[in-house]
Amino acid sequence: MIRHFLRDDDLSPAEQSAVLDLAARMKADRFGHRPLAGPRSVAVLFDKQSLRTRFSFDVGIAELGGHPLVVDTQVTHFGRGETLGDAGRVLSRYVAAIVLRTHGDDRIAEVAEAATVPVVNALTDGFHPCQLLADLLTIREHCGGTAGRTLAYVGDAANNLSHSYLLAGATAGMHVRVAGPAGFGPDPEVLARAEKIAAGTGGSVLALTDPVEAVAGADVVATDTWTSMGQEDDGLDRLTPFLPYQVNAALLGHAAPGAVVLHCLPAHRGEEITDEVLDGPQSVVFDEAENRLHAQKALLTFLLGAAPAAPDAAAP
Ligand code: CP
Ligand code: NVA
Questions:
Q1: 296 in contact with ligand 2, CB cutoff 6 A
Q2: What is the ipTM of this complex?
């Protein structure tokens, strides 16, 4: 069966944990795993801008022994008549997997329905699940694990990062609180799905409007831009209502002592996060950015059914 990764809840708790275990092993032995040797090719397609996702997939596929084909879709027939389904069917004849950053989730779903190879969401309007694998790996490294830890995400709680924190955090057994201004709360379907997942993992999810209530006692404080790609001209005030949600020293002071700060980057310094916090001792954002590489290598390996046996299983 072909495994796609379109949303964070496409991995079960056990599968998510296995991918993160593999990511940690791949980080420790960076060039020791080459499941794409041949080389097998992977298409990495962008309808939107990127720095981290573009480079981490390009470098990661090469480190797995594969051949990355990183393409901006403006130079393809995407968007000028060729259906996404036809493109998915054609690319499946060439490559081992398709990675796509695009707008609506319906667009990546159309590719996945037609593709005969795994399709990976490299960010859509709805979700950013590869980012969350990197974030969870970073939380494991800095907090000793994920289960039972409290994560507060403050800012635009209606965006892709908020949705992915809810789903992936619940899958990892975390207590996830998201807080944004009125009118900027999470999609009720995603919140309900995260609640259901959390009921099975011992985690919990909460949607709030008070940033201090969200951050109080949290082990991890996360934020993201107040204006996501494609929202620049949506006519909403994306500054004034968000000012109380800025991650600054005062807000961070409500978190648990030693709490760590995440930001997927790019950051809008002085808006959703201050220099003082982003460059401060509690920030782990550059570890987080590095972990995109290791997490995505593990994800591709898992989706291609090429994960090496865990060390315990290999023991005599
Ligand atoms: N965090 C993230 O996805 O960054 P890019 O938009 O630069 O890929
Ligand atoms: N929410 C942001 C994340 C960027 C990595 C966006 O979609 O633009």
A1: no
A2: 0.99
